[in-house]
Write a structure and sequence with these properties.
This protein is mainly alpha-helical. The chain contains twelve helices and two strands. Strands 1-2 form a two-stranded antiparallel ribbon. The protein is elongated, with a radius of gyration of 33 Å. Mean pLDDT is 74; it is low at 91-140 and 319-338.
Length: 338
């Protein structure tokens, strides 16, 4: 990311040189000597140099901060969701056919991925118990009681297995979506905090010098640095409240964790035939259960608040005062922050 800023800076310098050469050839005005003559034009030449160096410094700090935040966010998400899910969703095409056709349960016949469905167990004369729960059936053979057997849950058919594959693929897509959105707002939130800290530190240093001599007697270079640093701090100070970065991070993190739990539930069902709440379900019932959970979790967690654009509050680090102002203006309709 940082190289784009470097390319932009080099391009701006080349464009400025080209414009200066064109003006010098067409109108006979040597812009280079005009800008490089501080004794004749001190305000323009020197102040442009000071402001340019300050903006370049802040841009370099921002580029480094973005690179660090992106690297950390990617590493954390990869380590949490696992390399397998990351590779399947983010790097290669989804290939999860082997996920739903896992090893069978001990009491059930071998589940096959072939189109031919596995044979269903023979019906018992007694009433069928709840799916997945053992039923105690016994018969006498020569006066001896046989060992009770368990009625196995029928394995998923080919159609049911394909549907669970599609559900797992969609769940992983949503995991990646919420991970990307959470990482995006995390990076911007981290950059906003660092930029406010750096810009506020520079502005505070200039305020110290201005307080010593007063505004009228302060050198114009210090004034220029103070104005640019204050504007920089105010601009990045508005990012968290306007783009609701903290709320968007929290909402997408919650959805990310919910879908990770749902992913584990779908992966474990062919082995356990149980839900995450230890409830036995037939394959058709389990598919319906997953559809209802995806419908419940389905949400695009993005929020913005343009009413927070207030530069007076952007550089006000006293958080109690804006809270009182918001409560007075919004009344009782405001939503408390998490």
């Amino acid at each position: 990311m940082w190289y784009w800023y470097l390319i932009g800076f080099v391009g701006s310098v080349l464009i400025a040189l080209a414009v200066g050469w064109f003006v010098s050839r067409q109108y006979g005005v040597n812009l280079f000597s005009w800008l490089l003559a501080p004794t004749l034009y001190p305000f323009i030449a020197r102040h442009i140099l000071v402001v340019g160096l300050l903006i370049l410094f802040l841009t370099v700090v921002k580029s480094y901060t973005v690179s660090v935040a992106e690297d950390k966010a990617g590493s954390w998400l990869t380590s949490y969701q696992g390399e397998v899910t990351t590779e399947i969703v983010g790097r290669v095409k989804p290939d999860i056919a082997a996920t739903s056709t896992s090893s069978p349960s001990p009491a059930s016949p071998t589940a096959s991925a072939s189109p031919t469905p596995s044979p269903s167990p023979s019906p018992s004369p007694s009433p069928s118990p709840s799916p997945g729960l053992p039923s105690t059936q016994g018969s006498s053979n020569g006066g001896q009681q046989t060992v009770p057997t368990a009625t196995p849950t029928p394995p998923p058919t080919a159609t049911e297995a394909a549907r669970m594959d599609a559900q797992l693929r969609e769940i992983r897509d949503r995991i990646k979506h919420h991970a990307d959105v959470m990482a995006f707002f995390y990076v911007n939130y981290f950059v906003s905090i660092v930029m406010v800290m750096v810009g506020g530190l520079i502005a505070a240093a200039t305020v110290f010098f201005i307080a010593q001599t007063g505004w009228n007697k302060t050198r114009s270079y210090v004034k220029a640095v103070f104005v640019v640093a204050s504007m920089w701090t105010a601009f990045y100070g508005l990012f968290p409240p306007v783009f609701q970065q903290e709320k968007n991070i929290a909402d997408n993190k919650a959805l990310f964790l919910e879908y990770k739990t749902l992913e584990s539930e779908v992966e474990s069902y062919p082995v356990t035939y149980l839900t995450i709440k230890n409830e036995a379900k037939l394959p058709k019932e389990f598919i319906t259960h997953i559809d209802s959970e995806m419908a419940r979790l389905g949400n695009i967690a993005l929020g913005f608040d343009v009413s927070k654009i207030n530069y007076q509050d952007a550089i006000n680090f006293d958080k109690s005062k804006p809270a009182n102002n918001n409560s007075n203006s919004a009344g009782t309709t405001g939503t408390p922050k998490k």
